[in-house]
């Protein structure tokens, strides 16, 4: 696997953390000399390269490398639930955007009696 120096450092740091002791994104960013966007982008890139990086939004929160079958399963279940939730929200927003554009075209964006 072809990892750059930063990606290797991130993986090495994450290997020190488990589900019971994850590292928060802000702490990982500080250690790597990045901001939150930078560390989140690096984690995304590592995941796209096939590195399994768990994340928990429940306490204790943060990133970690899953250390056993249960941790892998728990992480993937949460990831799948988040993906389905995003897909549901996307569908609702897609329908809302069509309705919004129709109302805009008809000049009735905010309903009767409201003028801007």
Uncertain runs with pLDDT below 50, 5 residues or more?
none
- Give the strand content: 5-15%
Total count of domains: 2
* SSE series: HHHEEH
- What structural class should be given to the helix and strand makeup? mainly alpha
The outline comes out as elongated
Oligomer: single chain
- State the distance separating the first and last CA atoms: 57 Å
Spatial order of strands in the largest sheet: 1-2
| Backbone CA Rg | 20 Å
Number of H- or I-type helical stretches: 4
Find the CATH topology of the largest domain: Arc Repressor Mutant, subunit A
Could you give a quick summary of the protein structure above?
With about 120 residues, the protein is mostly helical.
Description:
This protein has 116 residues and is mainly α. The chain folds into two domains: 1-66, Arc Repressor Mutant, subunit A, CATH 1.10.10; 68-110. Helices cover 59% and strands 5% of the residues. It has four helices and two strands. The chain has helices at 5-14, 25-32, 36-48, 69-105, and strands at 54-56, 62-64. The chain has a two-stranded antiparallel ribbon with strand order 1-2. A hairpin with a 5-residue loop joins strand 1 (54-56) and strand 2. Helix 1 crosses helix 3 and helix 2 (25-32) crosses helix 3 (36-48). It is elongated and about 60 Å long. The chain starts with a helix and ends in an 11-residue tail after the last helix. The model has no long low-confidence stretch (mean pLDDT 91).
């Amino acid at each position: 696997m072809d990892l750059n120096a930063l990606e290797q450092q991130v993986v090495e740091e994450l290997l020190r953390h488990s589900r019971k002791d994850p590292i928060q994104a802000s702490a990982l960013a500080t250690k790597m000399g990045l901001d939150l966007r930078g560390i989140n982008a690096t984690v995304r890139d590592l995941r796209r390269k096939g590195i399994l990086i768990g994340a928990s939004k429940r306490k204790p929160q943060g990133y970690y490398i899953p250390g056993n079958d249960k941790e892998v399963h728990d992480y993937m279940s949460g990831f799948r639930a988040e993906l389905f939730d995003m897909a549901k929200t996307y569908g609702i927003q897609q329908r809302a955007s069509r309705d919004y554009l129709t109302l805009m075209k008809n000049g009735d964006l905010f309903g009767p009696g409201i003028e801007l």
